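Assemble and predict.
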Amino acid sequence: MKIALISSEAVPFSKTGGLADVAGTLYREFNRAGVDTTLFVPLYKETAEKYGKSLARMGTEIDIPMGRITKKCRVFTAAKKGRSEDHGTVYFISNDEYFGREELYGDAEGDYPDNDARFIFFCRSVLEICRKLDLRFDVLHCNDWQTGLIPLYLLTIHWGDPVFKDTRTVLTIHNLGYQGLFPAPSLEITGLDSGVFNPEGIEFYGQLNFLKAGIISADIITTVSSAYAKEILLPENGFGLDGVLRKRSGSLFGVLNGIDPREWDPAQDAFLPAAYSVSDLSGKQKCKKELISRCALKGPKDTPLLCFIGRLSTQKGIGLLAGSLDDLMKMGVDFFILGKGESGFQKMLTDYARKYPGRLYFRAGFDEPLAHLAYAGSDIFLMPSRYEPCGLGQMIAMRYGTVPVAYNTGGLADTITAPGDQTVRLFCEKIYGPAKETGFLFSQYSSESFLDEIRKALCVYDNKEVWRKMIGNAMRRDFSWKKSVETYLELYSKTAD
Ligand code: ADP
């Protein structure tokens, strides 16, 4: 089977969030499993700066139709040799006008205004490269709105093209909240017939919806946890697409994301000052010391260290977090926050860090090494996401023995085993320890409920033996891709039915 993974970001080449982890890791995992897999990603400025020297430019430029004009697509490859898992090929799609920018999707002003053109160009380039190089894939696996037009192109512009004769499409929705909505006139750039612009097609209340294009056209749709696959069929979580998704529910599957156990491994993480494992946690204490000292946190010895890492957006619960901070700080904790995102949230957290010097550290920005240290050096990981398709932060935290407190939704509900209220009391009274519990989930989306759950976590934290057991449960959880890779391969086979 020949698979193409198509993503607007993928580790290690580019990353703004979980999509990059998933696409990059799946690419490696498929190749490790012996599945011939190719990855298509844009060649962003940061990618070119970091990897440019190791990339090979391929042949001539390809003209990509963009409405009435054409734009040049240059193709680079990074075909790694040697290690068995690196047999696949990565195609980088380059056009400086579109991708030679500081950021992937937008800057402080907001999304780039030509994101429609940028990702129409990306989708069309992928398909033109397949045609030019005669790449015949069994499955084009598209990810999120940036690639949503591809399944529709196969049913329209490329219908009957021999290169795609046996090609089926899979669309994975990583976050339904981002749909790629653009003004109707963008239709011209897509090259699609105006007949597709209707409510049964890609129109969405007068606008063009790239994700909807994928939902109505892909052979199979997946999303990144079983719970989220059910939630998005409901009006309250469907972002206006629940009706369209319900129509396709027979072809919609939840496949849980994993994390790369080699990249996220406290026993061999180059970013950590000390290694540790579930059988010897002493290194975790050293990581905590290092984190405290780097962030100049000054709580008394053995103060619980709470942590948040993630995009600063409403979805991630920054509003709830900020609204709970004063009460949280009264609990006598230290708090580490690392995040990049909406400027209003950034300013608010900066103000809070000023209000609680030496107790609340906030670093605005994207910082991979610091994230690793914080996952390792913290005690409790907060993830109050309003909704969460899967979430990687909580899985990484558990792997590093940092106990999550999260909202009971989507992938958080699917990956965290939480004790019931009565059980927490029994833990706190040391009547018995956690058998399989790995974290805490709060079920009312309110500051009270969130703070209550943190209080419970702190109560368990005070019982070192019980806490140690919970850490052990969390660290032993298998968050590898093994099972999900198998599920994807089964689904790929299903597309041929
Ligand atoms: P998202 O919805 O943003 O994709 P996930 O939890 O699925 O959320 O994945 C987020 C990924 O990005 C995790 O690997 C997390 O560690 C990483 N991450 C998020 N924000 C930052 C940041 N500011 N610095 C470093 N890593 C970050």
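The mean pLDDT is 95.
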